[in-house]
Design brief:
single chain; 406 residues; mainly alpha
Length: 406
């Protein structure tokens, strides 16, 4: 049996390997800037994903060695590091300085499919989160379906004969391990893997939901952390899908950086159980300020447009009016406080009902205190409020009697 110390060293060495690959790809990327390649625009995303997943994976694997999630995250980070390195290495060896480095074709072959393999490990993380076990033995068919779908997705990119997909333009690179006369079968594999994406995704969401419904205490908070990160990642995907121009822009890169950092970071906080209950505050603030930002943005642009139209109607001038911008800015500043309080109240009433009811109960009690002077009645009301807001198992109230004639 492998010792605990050996597993810790294995995790650290695997993390160091990922760091070395990232460090080696930087000078190669600088040398390849004059050559157009597929991996260049996404280098930042791949580097952040490789560093985030490998670092968090090594941290969890070294501290929670019995939990496979750390090793899955570490493997994902290493595969993204391999993708980053081989993409730049193959570009340099085959195009920038053709023939200057050995193994360029093999590196290009790895670049063609290893990113799919890395992404295929992530569903297992959600399936086994947070304790490293399936929700129940009934979910084993879903685990096998994830494995089968991963194999079907990787096969067309790894074994298709002919030019490699990412290196098919200009001087195409022929797949060194392509299987002749397998194109029809591999195309079928690709179609089946795409069809399986829906049931696999639905199964993972259902497993996550079932685990959350059964969870209590710390485990529920752990799941909330990861669910929050998934929602953030999904929001970034949706935004970039709506505005494709963001894909390779600075704004898009920042959004993807945040998304790639959120997933492994949330898992580290959840599994290592660091400040678990802060997630309720994070979710609350995200809902409030996210809704507030969206509403203020709509009001701002609407106010600018309306004020601009009125200005043009009154003056007949077509140029942009600074008055419209100033008036709209002042209106947004005036609306910020009232609108934030209103949104906070709506969200508390809808998602944090216990907190909302407690606040209303305290408001009623404060009103009663102003008009009530009988200590017995106040004591009864106080115990009633404590019981409703805090739900203790037992309540005792002690009132100190008069001392020294006071």
């Amino acid at each position: 049996m492998v010792s605990i110390r050996a597993l810790r060293w294995l995790a650290l060495l695997a993390w160091a390997f990922a760091l070395v690959l990232i460090a080696l790809c930087i000078p190669l990327f600088a040398a390849n800037r004059s050559v157009e390649n597929e991996i260049g625009p996404y280098l930042g995303n791949l580097v952040v994903a490789a560093l985030a997943f490998s670092t968090v994976g090594a941290l969890i694997a070294s501290r929670r060695r019995e939990n496979p999630i750390g090793w899955l995250l570490l493997g994902t980070g290493i595969l993204y590091a391999v993708e980053t390195f081989t993409g730049n290495y193959s570009t340099y060896a085959l195009f920038t300085e053709a023939g200057s480095l050995p193994g360029g074709v093999l590196a290009a072959w790895l670049t063609n499919w290893v990113w799919i393999f890395g992404g295929s490990l992530i569903p297992f993380v959600f399936l086994f989160f947070p304790d490293g076990r399936l929700p129940s033995p009934r979910w084993r068919p879903l685990a096998w379906l994830v494995i089968i779908n991963a194999a079907l997705a990787v096969a067309p990119y790894a074994f298709a004969p002919g030019p490699l997909e990412d290196f098919s333009e200009g001087s195409p690179v022929i797949n060194p391990v392509g299987i002749e006369r397998s194109a029809t079968l591999l195309n079928l594999f690709e179609r089946v893997s795409i069809l399986l994406l829906f049931p696999v995704a639905l199964g993972l969401i259902l497993a996550f939901f079932v685990r959350f419904r059964r969870a209590r205490g710390e485990e529920r908070q752990q799941i909330k952390w990861v669910a929050y990160a998934v929602a953030l990642f999904a929001a970034v995907i949706i935004v970039v899908s709506i505005w494709p121009s963001l894909d390779v822009s600075v704004t898009g890169s920042v959004l993807f950086f945040a998304a790639f950092l959120a997933l492994p970071s949330s898992m580290a906080l959840a599994i290592l159980k660091y400040r678990l209950y802060d997630i309720d505050v994070v979710i609350n603030r995200t809902l409030v300020y996210g809704s507030l930002t969206a509403m203020l943005a709509l009001l701002y642009f609407g106010a600018v447009a309306i004020t601009q139209m009125l200005f043009r109607a009154l003056t007949g001038e077509e140029q942009q009016s600074q008055l419209a911008i100033v008036v709209s800015t002042l209106a947004i500043a005036a609306l910020f406080g009232p609108l934030r309080r209103r949104i906070q109240s709506v969200i508390d009433r809808r998602f944090y009902r216990r907190k909302y009811d407690a606040a209303k109960t305290l408001e009623v009690f404060n009103a009663r205190v102003r008009d009530e002077a009988d200590l017995d009645v106040l004591g009864t009301e106080l115990k009633k409020v404590v019981r409703q807001t805090m739900a203790p198992s037992h309540i005792s109230l002690w009132l100190r009697g008069p001392e020294d004639g006071r």
